[in-house]
Amino acid sequence: MKLLRNMALKAASAVVRNLSIREPDGWYPESLRGDAGEIVTSNSVLGLSAVWACVNLLSGTIASLPLMVYRRDKNGERVEAREHPLYRVLHDSPNFDQTSLDFWEYTCAALELWGKP
Predict the structure, then answer these.
(1) How far apart are CA 86 and CA 9, in angstroms?
(2) Is the pTM value of this prediction over 0.70?
(3) What are the pLDDT digits (tens) for 94-108?
(4) In angstroms, how far is CA 45 from the centroid of its own chain?
């Protein structure tokens, strides 16, 4: 049992290193620390499989939703603006290293975990 727990913690720490944590002190106010008997930090919370599963499910679902850029035509109807410069960035690929899904999945996970990308 202890061996499995250590392996899970090592796997979670590898994921944490990839996400580049920005707040080493924790993610909730100092006034709430110690009330539960356990200090929760950005490192320790991602070691919990339930937290990681929830963040992964939410960010993956949100990232898979279609993101379109729209404009209004003469009649006031909404139409896709595929010729808009931001359409390719937001819908297809924001950079050469990531697909749109990868980029939005990371951004959503960062927002859910730290409140900022």
Answers:
(1) 40
(2) no
(3) 888 988 899 999 999
(4) 14
